[in-house]
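Format notes (please read before filing issues)

Several people have asked whether sequences and C-alpha cells are stored in separate files. They are not. Every record keeps both together, in the order shown below: the sequence lines, then the C-alpha cell lines. Line labels are part of the format and must not be stripped during preprocessing.
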Amino acid sequence: MIRFLHSSDLHLGKPFGRFPEDVRVRLRQARAGALTRLGGLAHDHGAAHILLAGDTFDQMTPAPAVIRQAMNAMAAADHVQWVVMPGNHDHANATELWSQVVQDAPANVTVLLTPTPHPLGDAAVLLPAPPAERHPGRDLTDWFDGAATGDALRIGLAHGSVTDFDSSEDGGSSVIPVDRARRAGLAYLGLGDWHGQLCLGAETWYSGAPEADSFRHTAPPGALLVDLAAPGAPAAVTPLPTGTVAWRRALLDLAETDDAAAAHNRALPPLAERAYSLFDLVVTGRTPALARVALEQAAQQVAPDFLWHRADFTDLSLAHDTADLDAIDRQGALRAAAEALAREAADPALPPETRAVAEAALAQLFAYALES
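Then the structure lines:
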C-alpha cells in the first residue's frame, strides 16, 4: 500500500491587492502556513509523500524570501517527501524561479519539470504533466496512456481543466479528458487548478487549495489523503481540512414584510469565528426604508468583528410608504426632498440608473434624519 497527501494551488506570494494591508498580510501568512499544516497532516496520518499539483507559487518571479521560506517549511517536515510540479502560474519555463527552487530545495523535496515517470517508493510510479507555459491549450496528459511503468501502481499528476468542465480559475490552462485515469490505467489522477475540492470519479480528484482565496467555493478548503492498495483496487480518498481563514458570503433576498435586521443577524457566523473570517453580505429584494436603515446599522455594528467585512445593498429596492417619510419630517424642505426622491425612485418612465440613484439618496436621507 502507498499513502500520500494530494494538494495544489497554494499560490504562495499572492498579493491580495483588493484588501487593506493588514488583511493582505494575514492572508499571505495563512497561505505560507499551509505547508506546515500539510506536513503535520502527513505526519499524523502516516503519509510518505505530499504531491503538489501545480501553482505552489502565485507568480513566475516570487520574492526570494517566498521561495526560501517555502523550502524551509518543507525541510522542517523531513519525515515526508515533497513532490512539487509546476502549474500555469509557476510554469516550467519560469527558469529563474525553478533554478532558485532547485538551489534552495532540501533533500526531501523533488521538483518535476519534465513529463518523465518518477518512482514513488518501490510500489508506484508518478506520471507528471507539468505545464511549460501559462496557457498550453492542449492535453498534457496524453502521454500517460503509453508510459511504461511495469507492474507498479500508476499515479497521474496534472494541472488544468477537464473536458466539459472549465476548472481553471483564470481562463483555462489545458484540456484533460475526464476519463484520462481509465484510459491510462491510473490508480489515481491528482489534479490542480480548480481551487475547490472536487471529485470527478473514484480515482480522479481536484484537491482544491489548502486556503481559500475567494468566495467562489462553498466547500471548506483541505487536502486529500489517498490510499492505494493494489492495481485494480479503488483509491480510498479522505478529505482533510486545512483552512485557517474563512471566506463567507451571505445572500439575503428580502421581502417587504421581512424583519431585515433579524434576517441579517441569522446570516452571521458564530462570534468566535468572525475574527478569522472575511464576510461578504449581498442583499437583494425589497424592504421599507426604515427597515433598510436598521439593516445598514446592524451591518455597521458587526463589521469590526471580522477580519474583513463588506455589505452590498446595491440591488436592494425600497418600498415607499408615507408613514416612513414622516420619520424624516412631516413638512418643510427635508420632507419635500424626500417626496421628490420617492417619486423618482418609483417612476417607471425614468431610466433604471436614475431610479437607483434616487433610491440610494433617499436611503441616505433616512439614515441622516434618524441619526439626528
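For reference, the curators noted about this record: The mean pLDDT is 90. The chain has two domains: 2-241, 246-371.
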